[in-house]
Amino acid sequence: MDNMLAYTAAEQKPQLPAANVLEPKRLEFILDSGAKESIETAKTSLDTLVKDLELVLYKFGHFGKALPKMFKISPDAFIQVALQLAYYRLHHETAATYESASLRQFKYGRTDTIRSASLASKEFSENMEDKNASLEKKSR
Questions:
Q1: pLDDT per residue over 40-58, tens digit each?
Q2: Number of other residues whose CB lies within 10 A of the CB of residue 1
Q3: Quick check: 125 and 84 in contact, CB under 8 A?
Q4: With CB atoms counted within 10 Å of each terminal CB, which end of the chain scores lower, N or C?
């Protein structure tokens, strides 16, 4: 958390797009009948899971992105830590979560992965759930 706070407090310099990047090459896959059959089975399984999805939306109205920004915390980072805490409260363990990150500012932009689970987020969740932890310890 300290690293995140220090990063958000520091002035960020604009970055230029990557240079001298090779053109991407299309990959051609040669699949045998067994691999093709496995792909079709996976498609069917995914379709079944998608049809079984139930989604309920809840609009949180207590505060918005201005609150974390007031404390110089990225609203996205705030939500990621909140998700870690929520999962910890439900399952009493941390989850290996990730977030997709767009790298579109670079030539032929792509996505990458941000891993929000860390020892710091685990410690934060444990402290928040510890009824004997001081307010100071919870706010670190």
A1: 999 999 999 999 999 899 8
A2: 15
A3: yes
A4: C
Rounded Cα distance between 99 and 3, Å, is: 18
CA dist 99 → 77, 79, 113, 136 (Å): 10, 11, 6, 29
Contacts of 87 (CB under 8 A, 6+ apart): 94, 95, 97
Q: What is the pLDDT of residues 59-96, one digit of tens each?
A: 989 999 999 999 999 998 898 889 999 999 999 998 88
Strand ranges, E, within 91-136:
99-102, 111-114
CB contact at 8 A, 47 and 111: no
Would you say how long the chain is, in residues? 140
Report helix, strand or coil for 100.
Answer: strand
The amino acid occupying position 33 is S
- What distance in Å separates the CA atoms of residue 105 and residue 122, rounded to the nearest whole number? 32
